[in-house]
Amino acid sequence: MKKLEAPNFDDLDILRDMSGEGNPLYRRWNLIESIRGAYGNYDVQRGNGHQIGAAVSITDSAKFAILSCVKNWSGPLGVFEDIRFNLSPDVCPMCGSFSTTSIDHVIPKELYPEFSFYSKNLVPACSCNSKKLLNFIGSPNERVLHPYFDEVLRKRLIVSSFGRPLDSMTISVVVAPDLDELQSEVIFHIDKLIKNERIAGYFSCEFKKIWTLPDHYFNNVQTLTFDIMKVELERKLHRLDEEYGTKNNWKSALYSGILLDEEVLRYIFNKLQNI
User: Fold this and answer.
1) Residue 69 contacts by C-beta under 8 Å, 6 or more apart in sequence?
2) Which residues, in sequence order, are CB contacts of 141 under 8 Å at separation 6+?
3) Residues of the chain whose pLDDT is less than 70?
4) Residue 36: exposed, middle, or buried by beta-carbon count in 10 A (0-12, 13-18, 19+)?
5) How high is the pLDDT of residue 34?
6) What is the Cα–Cα distance from 9 to 263, expressed in whole angstroms?
7) Do β-strands 171-175 and 102-105 pair in parallel, antiparallel, or remain unpaired?
8) Are 57 and 34 in contact (CB under 8 A)?
9) 107 - beta bridge partners?
10) What is the pLDDT of residues 167-217, one digit of tens each?
C-alpha cells in the first residue's frame, strides 16, 4: 500500500490513437466521446468506485476488442509498461509486498471497459490483483483504496497482530489501532487484497530472523538490554518506512505490530538471551 503520484500521460491522445484503423475504437465516434466524458468523471470522483456511476454503454464486440488489446499492452498502449516497471518497482502500492509484476485496473476493466487504458485507473501491482478480481466495492464506505487519490495511504494503516501462544507463529495483518479515518475502506481493502496465507507466511519467516540472524538487527547482542532492543527495532522501523517510501510495506507492518505488543517484545528478548 503506497500513495503514488499519478502518471503523466496524455490519455486523450492515446484515446485518439486507439481510434485509428485497426484499433478497437476505429469509427466508434459516439463511444469515443462517451469515454472522454467518463475520464473527466473519474477525475472528479477521484476514482471512488461508489461514485463513478453506471458504466458507459458498450456493445459486446467493442468490449471484446477493448479487453483484447490490454492483454499484452502492445501498440499505442505500450507506453503503459512504464507504470509496471518504473512507477513503484520495489513495493506494491495495492498490498505492500515487494514486487510489481503486473498492471492492475483499480476499477475493474470487466465492469468498466471504458477505463481499460485510462492511466489513472492503471497501477503497478503484484499478484494481489488476482485476489481482488471484481471486488472493488462493498457496502457503503467499503471500497478499495486508490494509490493516486487516497491521501490516507501516507499514514500507517496496517500492522501485524500476533496470535497466542506466540510459539504458534500465527501472525495476521490488521488495521492500525490509531487510525482515525476511512476505517471501513481500509478494512475492506485489507480483506480483499492483503489478508491471506502469503502475508502470514512472510510475517512468520521475517519474525524468526530477528533472533536467528540477530547481527542483522542489533549492534551488539551480548550487551543488549530490553530498552536498547526496543530502540533499535524502532530505528529499523523508521528506516524501512523511508526505504520503501511508505509505512504500509510488509516489513514496516510487521515491526510496527511488534512494537505495539509488549508481550511480543519480551518474547523476542528472551529468545535473544538464549542464543
Assistant:
1) 18, 23, 24, 75, 77, 116, 117
2) 50, 184, 185
3) none
4) middle
5) 96
6) 50
7) unpaired
8) yes
9) none
10) 999 999 999 999 999 999 999 999 999 998 999 999 999 999 999 999 999
